[in-house]
């Protein structure tokens, strides 16, 4: 039985497909949905730069979720929207455990060119370390 679903969302086309898939799944099982987007801190930067970058990134991710929330306004499903800060795979797994989700739904690759070069390393890490089912949508 699927009662709780976490969707990893970054605004990319694969993430949008994953979101739509998760809503279909939630509708079928009347499951609760958590939509998580992750603002990733820069790997190398000074403290002041890091703070400014994280602030811009956080605002961007909040706007992403606000748009998605507005588009989902007509649904009867219980959907929660969250922004986390950190490494995407770690945050996805952490939030899945915190919310005791039954399945994580995510796109097969990220939004940026660099993320595409890594060939979906976030989805691979989540599949490897998650304690629940993981569905990767293409």
Strand and helix map with partners:
Blueprint (H helix, E strand, L loop, with lengths): L3 E5 L4 H17 L2 E8 L7 H25 L7 E7 L2 H11 L4 E5 L5 H5 L3 H9 L3 E5 L1
Parallel strand pairs: 1-2, 1-4, 2-3, 4-5
Helix pairs in contact: 3-5
Indicate the CATH class.
Alpha Beta
Broad structural category: alpha/beta
Assign a percent range to the helix content. 40-55%
- What is the terminal-to-terminal distance? 23 Å
User: Which descriptor suits the 3D outline?
Assistant: globular
Q: Which CATH architecture would you pick?
A: 3-Layer(aba) Sandwich
Mean pLDDT across residues:
89
In short:
This protein is an alpha/beta fold. Helices cover 49% and strands 22% of the residues.
Which descriptors apply to this entry?
globular; alpha/beta; 49% helix; 5 helices; 138 residues
Question: Can you describe this structure?
Answer:
With 138 residues, the protein is of the alpha/beta class. It has a single domain, classed as Rossmann fold. The protein is 49% helix and 22% strand. The protein has five helices and five strands. It has helices at 13-29, 47-71, 88-98, 113-117, 121-129; strands spanning 4-8, 32-39, 79-85, 103-107, 133-137. It has a five-stranded parallel beta sheet, sandwiched between helices. Helix 3 packs parallel to helix 5 (121-129). The radius of gyration is 15 Å and the shape is globular.
